[in-house]
Design brief:
Layout: H1 21-34, H2 37-40, H3 50-58, H4 66-73, H5 77-83, H6 85-92, E1 101-104, E2 113-117, E3 123-127, E4 134-137, H7 138-155, H8 160-182, H9 186-190, H10 196-204, H11 210-224, H12 229-236, E5 237-239, E6 245-247, E7 254-256, H13 259-275, H14 278-284, E8 287-295, E9 306-313, E10 318-325, H15 330-335, H16 338-346, H17 348-359, E11 368-372, E12 375-381, H18 396-414, H19 420-427, H20 432-461
Antiparallel strand pairs: 1-4, 2-3, 5-6, 7-8, 8-9, 9-10, 10-12, 11-12
Helix pairs in contact: 1-19, 5-7, 7-8, 7-18, 7-20, 8-18, 8-19, 8-20, 10-11
Length: 468
């Protein structure tokens, strides 16, 4: 089977191809003669031990958090899917691939889209998780989005016929969005964004589903304005016996670190501060760190090392920063020799920051990377105007529209890579791919169900914990 494992290494030279856009488009057509769209939609059965792969990934995580991680993953097939990106990364290498390299998200499922603040304090909607970002094949992101839509839609109780319609629309929308972005100038692509009011206006042009979605978006506008560091301080801190603000504990999820780890994190923060944008470095000169806590979030990253830093300004204001472990690519953890995986992981924070700044329309000005204790991390503001649409609360029309928006934004993100015109060339006249990827997605969703059952059974055999 075709393999492009070398694309996993985050070497930006792979997307710097000295050709015109027209030449790149022709190269994309040529790639289709080597791997057809029919092959791209052909499901190749996978043969691997899902539980063993999960166990290998979790061996790098904080062991006391694994029971809570497993509890979250057992909530549903979709939750399990979100927590096991390594399985699909591995499986995609055993499928036919386009071999057209881009900077990809690597985990573009429907819950990894959300709202975040631009530096101008506008509310932007787009991809918001880049832990698995890499140089990879465009269809890897699209297939991850498709499978997530299938699993999330099943949870919402939609019929197979309805879900097939959603999946067909996702691929069709992606193709059309690639065609649209191909017509834009480089600067139009660079400055493109999807601000919440643009989203509302787009929805208003569609009479179906406008009512529920617009109601949701207007609530998000009101709520996001209150989501900032001061709100976090009110919710997550309390005064100690000396009258100083400290994070509240909720072990094992929220737990203060010991003195040795505290000093280690301070060293990592100083490295981050000395290498972040100069204006942010100057701004941070107004703050001092007053508390640090280990605080675990999410599903897929639950169990990795994640810390919150409480910074207090010289006039009493607060800033809460998140320092989150940047794991080596999960696929690398499973297939590469240990030394190579570690080498790849040393620069994981830089990889994630680069991908986020490339794939997002506008990024957090505090975004940066650091390392300490032999591990790589990235830094960002915690929950600053961050909101999301609860996909499990959407009716069918709104869910359909939401998936369409996600697909559109995926194409926009992909077209930030210089090699993107190759995708346009590959997809020209390939309407049949829409139906083909519906079949591929449904087949892979059945594999997820098998993996989920194996995972659940393994926990029952081991009293709720996958043992080493």
């Amino acid at each position: 089977m075709l393999d492009s494992g070398k694309l996993d290494i985050f070497d930006l030279k792979k997307i710097k191809i000295n050709r015109t856009a027209k030449e790149l488009e022709e190269a994309g057509k040529e790639m289709r003669t080597k791997v057809s769209s029919e092959q791209l939609a052909e499901f190749v059965p996978v043969h691997r031990d899902a539980v063993a792969a999960i166990k290998k990934t979790e061996s790098k995580m904080i062991q006391e958090l694994l029971p809570l991680r497993h509890e979250r993953m057992l909530a549903s097939k979709f939750a399990f899917f979100r927590g096991t990106a390594e399985l699909m990364e591995q499986d995609l290498k055993d499928q036919y691939q386009s071999h057209i390299p881009l900077i990809i998200c690597g985990d573009a499922h429907v819950n990894n889209y959300g709202f975040y603040a631009s530096p101008e304090r506008q509310l932007i909607f787009g991809l918001n998780d880049f832990d698995e970002s890499r140089i990879g094949n465009w269809e890897s992101d699209l297939k991850r989005l498709l499978v997530s839509a299938r699993l999330a839609g099943e949870e919402n109780g939609f019929s197979d016929e309805q879900l097939d319609s959603v999946l067909h629309l996702i691929t069709k929308t992606y193709r059309h969005s690639i065609k649209h972005n191909d017509k834009l100038s480089l600067f139009q692509r660079l400055y493109s964004s999807y601000e919440i009011h643009d989203m509302i206006a787009a929805i208003d042009t569609l009479n179906n589903s406008a009512s529920q979605m617009n109601e949701i978006l207007n609530k998000i506008i009101k709520k996001s304005s209150r989501s900032n560091s001061e709100q976090i301080v009110k919710k997550m801190t309390k005064l100690n016996e000396n009258g100083q603000l400290r994070f509240s504990e909720n072990a094992p999820r929220a737990k203060h670190v010991n003195a040795e780890k505290y000093a280690e994190i301070l060293q990592g923060f100083n490295h981050y501060r000395n290498n972040v944008r100069q204006d942010i470095r100057i701004f941070l000169g107004n703050f001092s760190i007053t508390d640090i806590i280990r605080y675990s979030v999410g599903v897929g990253s639950f169990g990795t090392r994640c810390y919150l830093l409480l910074l207090t300004g010289n006039e009493g204001s607060h800033l809460v920063l998140q320092i989150k472990e940047a794991m080596p690519l999960r696929y690398n953890l499973l297939r590469l020799p240990t030394a190579e995986a570690i080498k790849n992981g040393v620069l994981a924070g830089r990889r994630i920051v680069t991908a986020q700044r490339t794939l997002q329309a506008s990024s957090d000005p505090f975004l940066g990377s650091t390392s300490f204790g032999g591990r790589s991390y990235y830094v960002r503001q915690f929950r600053d105007m961050k909101e999301s649409i609860k996909v499990n609360k959407l009716d069918y029309e709104s869910f359909n529209l939401y998936c369409q928006i996600c697909s559109t934004l995926l194409a926009i993100a992909h077209f930030q890579s210089p090699t993107a015109p190759m995708v346009r060339g590959y997809l020209k006249g390939q309407k049949a791919l829409d139906d083909g990827l519906v079949e591929w997605t449904n087949a892979y969703a059945k594999q997820v169900a098998i993996d989920f059952d194996d995972f659940r059974n393994s926990l029952q055999d081991n009293n709720g914990l996958i043992t080493k």
